[in-house]
Design a protein that fits this description.
Order of helices and strands: HEEHEHHEHEHEHEEHEEEEHEH
Structural class: alpha/beta
Helix content: 25-40%
Mean pLDDT: 91
Strand content: 15-25%
Number of helices: 10
Shape: globular
Strand order of the largest sheet: 1-2-6-3-5-4-7-8-9
Distance between the termini: 41 Å
Largest sheet: 9 strands, mixed
Low-confidence stretches: none
Length: 313
Amino acid sequence: VNKAVELLQQGKVVAIPTETVYGLAANAFNPEAVVTIFKIKDRPFFDPLIVHTDSLQKIEGWVQDFPESAKKLAEAFWPGPLTLVLPKKETIPDIVTAGNPTVAVRIPNHPLTLDLLSKLDFPLAAPSANPFGYVSPTTAGHVDDQLGNKIPYILNGGPCKVGIESTIVSFASGQPTVLRLGGISLERLQEVTGPIEVQLHQNSNPLAPGQMDSHYAPRATFVFGQIGEQTIVNENLLYTGAITLSRVIPWIAEENQIQLSKNENLDEAASNIFAAMRILDKRGLRLILAEPLPDKGLGRAVNDRLRRAAHKN
């Protein structure tokens, strides 16, 4: 942690663990450091970043307004996989927010990163620690595989427990609106907020990360939908893989398919989805098929990621 603190204070970029996925972090108050994040990821500058810190009091100093309904969500779910989008003060550079008048903020639930954040006098801008558009990393090894030669340090906090990005709720218009499904289900949000609007897609000028149609994609052709034998057209079955909740596909090689949760636990499925996509992609498969999960709880967020991964196909 002290090594990471030292590098971040020097304006360097460091990979950090969170309960959701690993982040590529830099001083959010240092525009040059933030630009380095975009360069390393090859991320478009119009895609805003999430700002991470360790206390509600710090966040209150960076935003113009913190509605009571937003504070209720923060009290219910922080630290945890929830991001709030709030009107920002000028303290937060425009490079972090892609020029938007709002900033996305959260308090991550990981002991190493909370310790790290408590030792810094600035927040960390941190998107997922992977090349833009590829599968998000849920272990330090995933980060090392793809970015190890581009960054000076990876703070290894073990596998991510939630394994899917934070849920993003915007208060830009005053009323809570879900901009990205994630580690807090809609059902749990609505227990605090009541009925809540959902607005997930925004390609031209996204208000938050993870709103673009095509994202989280492996290198192999990726197809999302119910899997039947007719799915395969002119494709060698030896180079076909499958991801399901618990179903075994009899006509696909056992070693080329992954069941996300044999007892159909949607939280477990969410924590395994990105690792499953990486495992199959590393096998050199040409086609990966993915079945939808039940559209409830975290299954809804997993389906969202699978749908975006398959968008190009």
